[in-house]
Amino acid sequence: MYTRSTLSCLVAGLIALQACTTVDPYTREEKTSKATTGAVIGAVAGAVLGIATSKDKKKRKERALKGAGIGAIAGGGVGYYMDVQEAKLRQRLENTGVSVTRNGDNIILNLPGNITFEVDKSDVKPDFVEILGSVSLVLNEYKSTMIEVAGHTDSSGSESYNQLLSQQRAHSVSNILARKGIDAVRIDTVGYGESRPTASNATPAGRRQNRRVELTLLPYVEG
Q1: Strand intervals (E) in 1-98
Q2: pLDDT value at position 63?
Q3: Which residues are CB-contacts of 3 (< 8 A; sequence separation ≥ 6)?
Q4: Is residue 122 part of a domain?
Q5: What is the pLDDT of residues 20-56, one digit of tens each?
Q6: Nearest to 82 by CA among 65, 100, 107, 99
């Protein structure tokens, strides 16, 4: 079963109502936007649900992280830890087509489907494997960062097909990160299919924007 990380849910509640800052991967212009009320409510609800239903899973995850020698970050050092990591990712991903978004203490890497995969395929393009290698170099340096790999599609085709394709694409990315040395316990993989569009599916441009894999990087914090 593919589920969101409990850690992801907890952090989502903490970053509600904060502004998102995005750097356009082509122009390098900084853009600022606010999360919608609906998205904030959904994030908080998800955090509450995670706390209520996933205590055993959280304990298992913490034991696995401890077994892998991965320690938590002290609360006061989280901001700086993510700041430095963000700067290194921006440097390595400049002019690659991958956008870097900062939302509170989270970093989101948007991997557009058109540069990551062939049409209706789940294998990562050979040229993009090298870009994921650059991401892995940073993530291997910052081992207290958890990674959610989430696949998304547009609404073309059946819902079941889109769900499967999103899962397969997310797993392809996760597998490459693991081959690049990232401990599997740090990675959560999920496919959302067509359920979380960021643009209208009524236009070709909107559908292209919705076809993506997102890497959400979350600090593993004490407590």
Answers
A1: 19-23, 30-34
A2: 80
A3: 57, 188, 190
A4: yes
A5: 444 444 334 444 433 333 333 333 333 333 433 457 7
A6: 107
Separation between Cα atoms, residue 64 and residue 67, nearest integer Å = 5
- CA neighbor of 136 nearest in space, from 178, 73, 105, 187: 178
- Asked if 148 and 190 count as a contact pair (C-beta separation under 8 A), the reply is yes
Instruction: Work out the number of other CB atoms within 10 angstroms of the CB of residue 110.
Output: 18
Count of the separate structural domains present in the chain: 1
Kindly state whether residue 173 falls inside one of the protein's structural domains: yes
Q: What are phi and psi of 3, to 5 degrees?
A: -130, 155
SS (H, E, C) 123-170: CECHHHHHHHHHHHHHHHHCCCEEEEEEEECCCCCCHHHHHHHHHHHH
**Mean pLDDT score of the chain:** 81
**What's the whole-model pTM score?**
0.74
Give the pairing of strands 212-219 and 187-191.
Answer: unpaired
* pLDDT tens digits, 60-78: 877 888 777 788 888 789 9
If we measure between CA atoms, which residue out of 146, 215, 216, 133 comes closest to residue 185?
146
Q: State which H helix or E strand residue 212 sits in.
A: strand 212-219
Joined tokens for residue 100: 């870097």
- Structural domain that includes position 64: 6-219
Q: What is the CATH number of the domain that holds 139?
A: 3.30.1330.60
